[in-house]
Amino acid sequence: MRGISKTFPTKRLLLQRFLLAVMLLAAITLMVVDKFQPQLFESSRSRALDIVAPILEMFHNPIQAVHSLYARFDNIWNLQAENARLRLENRQLMQWQAKAMHLDDENRNLRQILLVPESQSVRFVTARVIADPGGTFVRTLAVNAGKRDNVKKGQAVMVAEGLMGQITNVGWRSSRFLLLTDLNSRLPVTIAGTTTQAVLVGDNSQYPHLLYLKNLQDLKIGQEILTSGLGGKFPAGLPVGYIAEIGPNSVRVALHAKVYKQKFVRLTDFGLESVFQGLETAKTRELQNLQ
Amino acid sequence: MIAGFWAETEVFLLRLLPILLCLLLILFNLVNYFIPGSGEIRPILILAGIYYWTIYRPDLMPYWAVFVLGLVMDLLYGGILGLSSFVLLFMVLILASQRKFFFKISFVIIWWAYMICAFGVALCHVLLNWLLIGGGLDGLWQIIIPVFFSTLISIALYPFLHRGFVKIQGALPMPRYVEMVR
């Protein structure tokens, strides 16, 4: 009995420590592999999200009910001020509506004269935000639409206020999209009303900054930032945000789409293929022809 | 025979409860609460679970479970795969070596030790992410502030989780001696 109590825990301890060492090495190997070949684990990430998506939707319902109740009380409390604001906004929008109709008419006539081909209609899917899996290091959101809803990687994620991000991971019933504030986000943009182009770069803060600006002196706070269409990922003219801060070395942008408010998003297929996707497709076709 | 089978099944499921609780904590962390800033500042609830069960019932939180929970975290949160497993296993290794310190001490000391663990884990996360993702010194500064506040919230929530775990521990089957030795 004494012999057994002496040897059995020791062997068990050794085995446990050996397994621990193996697991630590496995974790380090996974980190290195994921760093250099992130596409290897893409399908695992989308499958994991697909499995928990129904549970997350179940958790989402009571939280959304509480939030709606709070929003209702907030609206009642601020009813008078909100009413005045809406009346003013309505008057402004009626003026814009008349102008927009006139411009639309003029645009159609000019397109007919110049024989410009009709642009393709945009397809979109409305999806509910079911999870905020990001955190400090990764800024992503998950939605309850996937391959079964014709969602594809690279599609734009839009809300009423503007562009919010881009689909990066697609599962069968759920998808993950990268926010414009994420460290890996790069978006070619232009400053509205100018020919100035830049790249909107996320840095995991709420205010991404602009890179490759030629002249900071011409910029003003409040200027609109729109997509430039360069790279072919998104069409030109999608609203992104406005200049919020002009520092000595950097320009910060406040995004129109506020992440915490969004319950529903639009996954929009503009029918565009980015330059890099196009190059990959051409290369694949060339290899197939050679074979 | 049948009664014996159901009794064994019940014991088996109860023994899985701490791991399932930690999985539930991972899912709670995923939910969108529609609060401004809740995306960046997010407490790591699973840390409390792994901390508690490693100290009081290490037989129900084996190393392989910590490894798998870390992998699930990374897969769902979109972080670098293996990073959470590495950091959590490291924390568990240190806790397991210091288990004797946690016997018959007040809750305040346990909470204080949790605070050290939480900051340690946060620091490891920040450094490893910064090394692997990059971002320069500016990038490091952007990460440190939200991580600091996330850690503070994790520490503030610990007493409530601790109380819940204590209640659940009462319902769990007693451990065998050999399983408690690490």
Question: Any overview of this molecule?
Answer:
The complex is a heterodimer of chains A (291) and B (182). Chain A has 291 residues and is of the alpha+beta class. The longest helix of chain A has 36 residues, at 42-77. Chain A is built from four helices and twelve strands, in the order H-H-H-E-E-E-E-E-E-E-E-E-E-E-E-H. With 182 residues, chain B is an all-alpha fold. The two termini of chain B are 34 Å apart. The mean pLDDT of chain B is 86.
Write the layout of secondary structure elements.
The complex is a heterodimer of chains A (291) and B (182).
Chain A: H1 2-36, H2 42-77, H3 79-114, E1 123-131, E2 140-143, E3 156-159, E4 162-170, E5 175-179, E6 186-191, E7 197-201, E8 209-211, E9 224-227, E10 239-246, E11 251-255, E12 264-269, H4 275-290
Antiparallel strand pairs in A: 1-2, 1-12, 2-5, 3-4, 3-12, 4-5, 6-7, 6-9, 7-8, 8-11, 9-10, 10-11
Chain B: H1 2-30, H2 45-56, H3 63-77, H4 83-97, H5 107-133, H6 136-170, H7 177-180
Helix pairs in contact in B: 1-2, 1-3, 2-4, 2-6, 3-4, 4-5, 5-6
